[in-house]
Amino acid sequence: xxxxxxxxxxxxxxxxxxxxxxxxxxxxxxxxxxxxxxxxxxxxxxxxxxxxxxxxxxxxxxxxxxxxxxxxxxxxxxxxxxxxxxxxxxxxxxxxxxxxxxxxxxxxxxxxxxxxxxxxxxxxxxxxxxxxxxxxxxxxxxxxxxxxxxxxxxxxxxxxxxxxxxxxxxxxxxxxxxxxxxxxxxxxxxxxxxxxxxxxxxxxxxxxxxxxxxxxxxxxxxxxxxxxxxxxxxxxxxxxxxxxxxxxxxxxxxxxxxxxxxxxxxxxxxxxxxxxxxxxxxxxxxxxxxxxxxxxxxxxxxxxxxxxxxxxxxxxxxxxxxxxxxxxxxxxxxxxxxxxxxxxxxxxxxxxxxxxxxxxxxxxxxxxxxxxxxxxxxxxxxxxxxxxxxxxxxxxxxxxxxxxxxxxxxxxxxxxxxxxxxxxxxxxxxxxxxxxxxxxxxxxxxxxxxxxxxxxxxxxxxxxxxxxxxxxxxxxxxxxxxxxxxxxxxxxxxxxxxxxxxxxxxxxxxxxxxxxxxxxxxxx
Length: 524
Hints:
CATH topology of the domain at 40-237 and 480-507: Serine Threonine Protein Phosphatase 5, Tetratricopeptide repeat
Keywords: Lipoprotein, Signal
Number of helices: 21
Number of strands: 6
Shape: globular
Organism: Echinicola strongylocentroti
Oligomer: single chain
Order of helices and strands: HHHHEHHEHEHHHEEHHHEHHHHHHHH
InterPro entries: SusD-like_2, TPR-like_helical_dom_sf
Protein name: SusD/RagB family nutrient-binding outer membrane lipoprotein
CATH architecture of the domain at 40-237 and 480-507: Alpha Horseshoe
Signal peptide: 1-25
């Protein structure tokens, strides 16, 4: 009897202890420093950073060499078009898009979170533009539905429909961001300035509309006219203060990996860019490049001859023995300019700055050149193309003067600031003439210069316009044709083969020469 009473007492104590533990279980086992729900302010900075990182990485490799801003020495696979199936920006892009969709989901119908929703739409379009302009048809309508709908094998959406969707989303983003919303946090791009996000949305829409201006001229014309005719409803970038550029605060941001020592030091100034800038006495050359090591100068020289680029498309052996002056005694890397100090990491040069360079996404210069082009091509019914063209040039010079001043490189800043801009603009190969075709080519050339190290935008412009000219080098593969897209990643072929094959059939192949929907210029 005593034993039974003891057992009962023991079991009762256990039960009471269990109830006591259950009552405060969540309080005890919840980390007060870890959020229990996803909030947009926590998602936003990571999305911006990861997208900019991927954007800068591609812009600093294929994006630099394919349109001949830079060339390669030592390892020249990028420069000779020996491009393998590329998992980037595909993999990084969709990894980021998962967070973008989460941001949209948690903010779309939540009171006070409309600003995050609008920003999420802009970030969605930026990511999709990056991916589709690299590959063509990609998952879009069925993308990122593995968790919500169990769709792990999404169909590929034709690029025309993707562009229509992106443009519609940017129209909606502008509307949403115009509403009254609570102040936001976590915004490492614009520090919570919603008007600048609206300007980014409309400027990005302007970019996309111009990109489809040959493939879908009616839609492009209607959209471009709507934006330009009503700047109050559709504000766009008006100065360099508005441009989309991620400011860094670390020593070696991803956008400068290509200028590191070792194998990354293979990216050098292209002879194409060198010759075009020298022909215009354009001091931006001294931003984009450093004097050759053999000159004995450091990061700046007054003498134009101290800057020399490499011919694009050489084999590895030819690149290592290349001489810009055809003098065998003056050949090799010591006679070829590195990229400018603005783009150098601190491991490579102690004079570099951790905060001067930015990952440039879209500039005011680009907007000015887009409007100039629209006027010149009569997409817009009226306007002064030359005025906007000159605004684009001035803004480019001002931007680089500002960034070199931040870096403390006074000689380079002074070279830019001391330029007689009126004389520069009146040069025969810069100023407008009575030849509309020549004027359009000048717009494209200046836009190409201004898009140095800006993602793959210069490549996209060349694919759309065939300007300025790109001549493959002597060792170029791909049948001596400039690539117009990336190959789909091998992982996609293996894991989503049926939809991959349908996309390839729709596009006409999975080759470096397979044109995107909007790419109809005669550039092959």
